[in-house]
Amino acid sequence: MKKTVLSIALALAAFQASAHDHSTHDHSGHDATAANTKTYHEVQSINDVLTVENAHAKATIPGVKVSAGYMKLTNKTDEPIRLVEAKSSVAEHTEIHRMFMRDSQMAMRKVDSLEIPANGTVELKPKDYHLMFMGVKDALEPGQEIKVTLVADNGEKFDVQLTVMPMTKY
Q1: Rounded to whole angstroms, how far apart are CA atoms 153 and 139?
Q2: pLDDT, tens only, 60-119
């Protein structure tokens, strides 16, 4: 039993030691993940209505079946866009969530809709609005590209590519 606990502790320590912030430096000169982070840094013009920037998801830890997705969404029209659903084949459920403070503690809830104002921007980011992938079917690996379909209240669908990024300290 002691060996098992020690092995788990060492594995977690090694995982933490390997995690670092990829936004502070260039990876173009090394590893396969660098080549696959291109989409994350790109602006995706989904159509003449929506632009997406920095679309990414967190890699999963072995045995953990949840992850989160983040991006900046820009509405290029004179009407607000209300997103009411998110879908992805990588998870059993994909939902739009919001984190907030309740009784001096962070809490998280699914939201019924997320409004992107006319000619405005909404950012999905840690500790705020984000996508929640629950029941992740296979591990999300750094460099992997995943498709998420965002659905508006009028039925319009927006396919977004998210790059899976290595775990970092948040």
Answers
A1: 31
A2: 998 899 999 999 999 999 999 999 999 999 999 999 999 888 888 888 899 999 999 999
Distance CA 84, CA 95 (A): 9
* Annotated domain spans of the chain: 23-165
| Alpha carbon distance 158, 126 (integer Å) | 22
| DSSP state at residue 2 | H
How far apart CA 73 and CA 52 sit, in angstroms, is: 5
At the second CATH level, the architecture of 23-165 is: Sandwich (2.60)
Query: Which tokens go with 35?
Result: 């080549």
- Read off the tokens for 163: 């790059």
Dump pLDDT digits (tens) for 108-158. 899 999 999 999 999 999 999 999 999 999 999 999 999 999 999 999 999
Residues 151, 46 contacting (CB under 8 angstroms): no
- C-alpha to C-alpha distance for 10 and 14, rounded to whole angstroms: 6
The whole-model pTM stands at 0.74
